[in-house]
Amino acid sequence: MPFQLYNTLTRQKEDFKPLADNQVGLYTCGPTVYDYAHIGNLRTYVFEDVLKRVLLYDDYKVKHVMNITDVGHLVSDADEGEDKMEIGARREKKTAWEIAEFYTEAFQKDIAELNILPPDIWCKATDHIKEQIELIGTLEKKGFTYQTDDGIYFDTAKFKDYGQLAKLDIEGLQAGARIEMVKGKRNSTDFALWKFSPSTSSGKKRQMEWNSPWGTGFPGWHIECSAMAMKYLGEQIDIHCGAVDHLNVHHTNEIAQSEAATGKKFVNYWIHGEHLLVDGGKMSKSKGNYATLQTVIGEGFNPFAFRYLVLTSHYRSKLNFTWESLQAAQNALTKLYKQVAELDDARKLDQEYKDKFEAALNDDLNTPQAVSIVWDLLKSDLPAGAKKATLLDFDKILGLGLDKKQQLVEIPEKIEKLLTEREKARSDKNWDKADELRNEIEKAGFIVDDTPEGQRIKQAS
Ligand code: AMP
Ligand code: ZN
After folding, report:
1. Is the minimum distance from the CB of 240 to ligand 1 under 6 angstroms?
2. Are 369 and 360 in contact (CB under 8 A)?
3. Which of 150, 167, 235, 286 gives the lowest tally of CB atoms within 10 Å of its CB?
């Protein structure tokens, strides 16, 4: 059964064939470590983890590289605004280096809590300045660059296939954006490879800067991914992932730089995940509509509940986040853990269910279907030992920790009843009764919070 993936390059599902035998080079764009990742970012890392686990399940040898963006990611995609790292440093009165170290660790902790397999290679942009300078040098020699007052730019008009991945309307973009373009840029889609540090006379000395053949400064955001992906995976790689917000600019520019430098196709399969939304809009730092994994945990949720929630939607569908849906995911997961705990020891797995499960995931990572197969299996009349063995096998991909004793707290029926009564009291505006019920719930060891989305319950610590 072939593994099919939706390739953004061709806008269709394709059979996956690696460049070499059963070896797969996988590059996933990593976090910008100026702040905590939000659960939108983490949705993307969960989908990429499922992709990697399916490859491993299908017996591929995977070499997974993830970068840490610790310099050069500016506030605006148009090469303007401050470096996010410098903003983080000012916000916390620390150095940009301290900020990077702190949030890299926080990110690594988050992904471990979500049972996301770590990459084989972590690589920081600031550890690869030499490689980035070399790549810019190659592009310069080949005539793809030009210099402005503020840096070295890639001339997108010189790269024939620019914008193909995102199917950009280049002419429309050039015409529309001319007015707001950074001074000295030749085309609106041109992007910075190297930015000069502001002159010291302006009094705004950067914390992170390096010497280069063009002057003191720092690399653009896009060049780091090209330089590090090629260093660790070669000039041509099998799979490159990220969320859809990276399509128009970041990935489009990675392709342009890499292919201009090598003359070879950079990536065979571009796989993009859809966004996590809040009230119909993208969850993002700039909108302030985000939650971190630590917020989620603080609200009484198990990180696996978030992982389960992500698995219940297809990675190419938008997923609107609500606390209610997270609660529903946690309830389902609690039920799942309970049922798994009640099964006998694992015996021989059931091949028919295994085939169905594999078919769902090999069909462009259909995780919602895979999750429903889990419930079908539990409902089936297979012997308990076969159910257990099959579920443990499925968990190699789901990563829900079914092999461990999970500590999820079930909300007792008595509490559920009190909550329903309290909901009614609140809608009748009978506040005394609502308070009385709150006390009763607290005495039973649970805390109830009233949120715009209704009551939320967690166990008292
Ligand atoms: P960043 O730290 O901004 O470089 O983003 C890290 C990853 O999260 C990238 O793959 C982004 O495309 C992805 N991302 C950003 N916002 C969201 C969102 N709301 N939902 C899903 N993925 C996102
Ligand atoms: Zn990247």
Report:
1. no
2. yes
3. 286
| C-alpha dist (Å) from residue 378 to 204, 374, 404 | 62, 6, 18
Comparing CA positions, the residue from 112, 123, 114 lying closest to residue 27 is 123
Report pLDDT digits (tens) over 32-44.
999 999 999 999 9
pLDDT at res. 127: 96
- Ligand in nearest proximity to the CA of 276: 1
Pocket test for ligand 1, best of 111, 245, 246 (most atoms within 8 A of CB): 245
Note the pTM of the prediction, 2 decimals: 0.89
| Residues in the chain where the model's pLDDT stays below 70 | 170-180, 199-204, 405-410, 452-453, 461
CA-only gyration radius of the chain, Å: 25
Distance, in Å, from the CA atom of 134 to the CA atom of 128, rounded to the nearest integer, reads: 10
Q: How far apart are CA 140 and CA 197, in angstroms?
A: 20
Exposed, middle or buried: residue 458 (CB in 10 Å: 0-12, 13-18, 19+)?
Answer: middle
Ligand found nearest the CA of 225: 2
Q: If you take atom 6 of ligand 1, which residue's CA is the nearest one?
A: 31
Q: Which atom of ligand 1 is nearest to the CA of 43?
A: 21
DSSP-derived 3-state class of residue 359: helix
- Ligand number nearest CA of 44 is 1
Who contacts 458 (Cβ-Cβ below 8 Å, separation ≥6)?
299, 300, 446, 447, 449
Ligand 1, atom 22, lies closest to the CA of 41
Q: Return the closest-CA partner of residue 241 out of 1, 7, 400.
A: 7
Beta-bridge mates of residue 165: none
